[in-house]
Design goal:
Blueprint lengths: L14 H21 L3 E5 L5 E4 L1 H6 L13 H5 L21 H8 L6 E7 L3 E12 L5 E9 L1
Antiparallel strand pairs: 1-2, 1-5, 3-4, 4-5
Length: 149
C-alpha cells in the first residue's frame, strides 16, 4: 500500500461544507436511500460520514444522525487506534493493517469489496464499500452498507 494515501486523510471538510453536501445528498437521493432495506452510510473523499439512511440510524440507535456527521468509520465504530493520531481514523501507524482501511482504500478499484468489523453498539457486522453516488457538484462518494455478520 502506498504511504502517500495517508496524506489525503489528514484534512477534513469544515462543518458548513459537510452540512451543505449532506443537504444535497438528502435532496437528491434521501428518499431512495431511506427506502433501501440495508443500513447505509455515505462518505466523502476524506472518508467522513455525510449521510446515513433510516436503517443505519436504527441499527446504531442514532436519535440524532447529525451527531456522526464528519466522523470516519473508525471514529464512528469506536476503533482504539482512531485516537492515536491527531488526524484521526486512517492516519495512525496501525491503520495500514486495518481491514476496514484496506477495503475503503480499494473501493474505488475493486467491485464488491467487503470486510467484517465490530461496532461496539451492535456487534459484528459486514461492511461492503463501493464507489457510487455523486453530489450535484460531481464529487464521487463511497457508499458503505452494514449488515449482520
Amino acid at each position: 500500500m502506498d504511504a502517500s494515501i495517508f496524506q489525503g486523510l489528514g484534512p477534513r471538510m469544515q462543518v458548513h461544507e459537510l452540512g451543505m453536501m449532506r443537504s444535497e445528498i438528502a435532496a437528491a437521493h434521501g428518499v431512495l436511500l431511506d427506502a433501501v432495506p440495508v443500513a447505509l452510510a455515505v462518505l466523502n473523499e476524506f472518508w467522513q460520514v455525510l449521510f446515513t439512511n433510516a436503517r443505519f440510524n436504527a441499527l446504531l440507535d442514532l436519535r440524532e444522525p447529525l451527531s456522526i456527521l464528519g466522523l470516519r468509520l473508525g471514529e464512528m465504530s469506536g476503533c482504539a487506534n482512531a485516537g492515536t493520531s491527531l488526524s484521526g481514523c486512517g492516519t495512525s501507524l496501525s491503520c495500514p493493517q486495518c481491514s476496514v482501511f484496506k477495503i475503503a482504500y480499494r473501493a474505488d478499484r475493486d467491485a464488491g469489496a467487503s470486510v467484517s468489523m465490530v461496532l461496539p453498539v451492535v456487534g459484528a457486522v459486514t461492511v461492503d464499500v463501493g464507489m457510487g453516488l455523486g453530489t450535484p457538484v460531481g464529487v464521487p462518494l463511497r457508499v458503505c452498507s452494514f449488515s449482520p455478520a
